[in-house]
């Protein structure tokens, strides 16, 4: 009977998820945006990533801080943010944040580098009508 083992594993996963949620909340409160972005991306939480981006943009020199944080992300994290922002861009409430992130990616990534991103073709096709 493995029911008990499976229940313990599910409980452990749930506890880990709660711990990560708390850590994310603490990072946002402490304004440690780079770590908050990384954690939200690893949790696959597009809305949370958007909230972090909005928090960064509300700061003094928000665009500058956003650039500094986005540039420091790993390539796989930037790819995840690109997929998230395609959805953000379709909503008028979130399009400004999406455009700020797109601007940063276009400014700091070479075209050849951008072409290596997975899903870049579909992302560009989805972004064009709304941009």
From TrEMBL:
Highest taxon above the source species: Eukaryota
UniProt GO molecular function: U3 snoRNA binding
Domain U3 small nucleolar RNA-associated protein 13 C-terminal, residue spans: 21-131
Keyword Repeat: yes
Keywords in alphabetical order: Nucleus, Repeat, WD repeat
GO aspect biological process, one term: endonucleolytic cleavage to generate mature 5'-end of SSU-rRNA from (SSU-rRNA, 5.8S rRNA, LSU-rRNA)
Regions crossing the membrane: none
InterPro entries named in the record: Utp13_C
Keyword Protease in record: no
Cellular compartments per GO CC: 90S preribosome; small-subunit processome
Subcellular location(s) of the protein: Nucleus, Nucleolus
UniProt-recorded name of the protein: TBL3 protein
Species for this entry: Ciconia maguari
Upper lineage: Eukaryota, Metazoa, Chordata, Craniata, Vertebrata
């Amino acid at each position: 009977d493995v029911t008990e083992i499976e229940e313990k594993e599910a409980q452990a996963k749930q506890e880990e998820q709660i711990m990560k949620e708390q850590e994310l909340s603490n990072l946002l409160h402490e304004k440690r945006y780079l770590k908050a972005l990384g954690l939200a991306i690893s949790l696959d939480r597009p809305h949370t990533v958007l909230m972090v981006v909005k928090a960064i943009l509300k700061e003094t020199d928000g665009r500058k801080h956003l650039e500094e944080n986005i540039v420091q992300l790993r390539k796989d994290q930037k790819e995840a943010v690109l997929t998230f922002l395609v959805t953000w861009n379709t909503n008028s409430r979130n399009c400004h944040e999406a455009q700020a992130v797109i601007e940063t990616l276009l400014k700091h990534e070479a075209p050849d580098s951008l072409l290596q991103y997975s899903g870049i073709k579909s992302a560009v096709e989805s972004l064009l009508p709304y941009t």
